[in-house]
């Protein structure tokens, strides 16, 4: 009885340490994104900045298309992914001096905002939407 209880306590301790390490990792990443860069703004500050500047440029169809693109992302991370992608789309639109967010801008921002390790998944999602990827090949190579 005593040996199995000790094993249970050790196992529970290991599980707790692993869970705390995972939580700490994600908290540390969020902390790093909040640190100001040379320009005085953090990564999250810039994301919020681009979202605010371009909020009026989104139509309902474009919002729905973005939702379709981020729907495969696990629900736990979907809000973070949506903010990151939408802010990159806004940045692209502002750099192109557009008055309205277009489908092409959404695809371009989606590709740029997605880490290279996830490009296979991204390509699969875009192909499921019957989107021709040839015009965007240079964006995949830049990433």
UniProtKB/TrEMBL annotation:
The chain crosses the membrane at residues 6-28. It holds the Pfam family DUF2621. It comes from the Bacteria. Keywords: Membrane, Transmembrane, Transmembrane helix. InterPro entries: YneK. This is DUF2621 domain-containing protein.
């Amino acid at each position: 009885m005593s040996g199995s209880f000790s094993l249970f306590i050790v196992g529970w301790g290991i599980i707790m340490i692993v869970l705390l390490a995972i939580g700490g990792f994600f908290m540390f990443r969020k902390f790093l994104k909040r640190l100001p860069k040379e320009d005085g703004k953090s990564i999250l500050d810039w994301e919020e900045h681009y979202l605010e500047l371009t909020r009026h440029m989104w139509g309902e169809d474009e919002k729905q298309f973005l939702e379709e693109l981020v729907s495969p992302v696990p629900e736990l991370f979907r809000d973070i992914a949506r903010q990151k992608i939408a802010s990159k789309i806004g940045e692209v639109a502002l750099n192109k001096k557009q008055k309205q967010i277009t489908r092409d801008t959404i695809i371009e921002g989606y590709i740029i905002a997605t880490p290279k390790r996830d490009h296979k998944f991204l390509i699969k999602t875009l192909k499921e939407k019957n989107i021709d990827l040839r015009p965007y090949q240079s964006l995949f190579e830049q990433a």
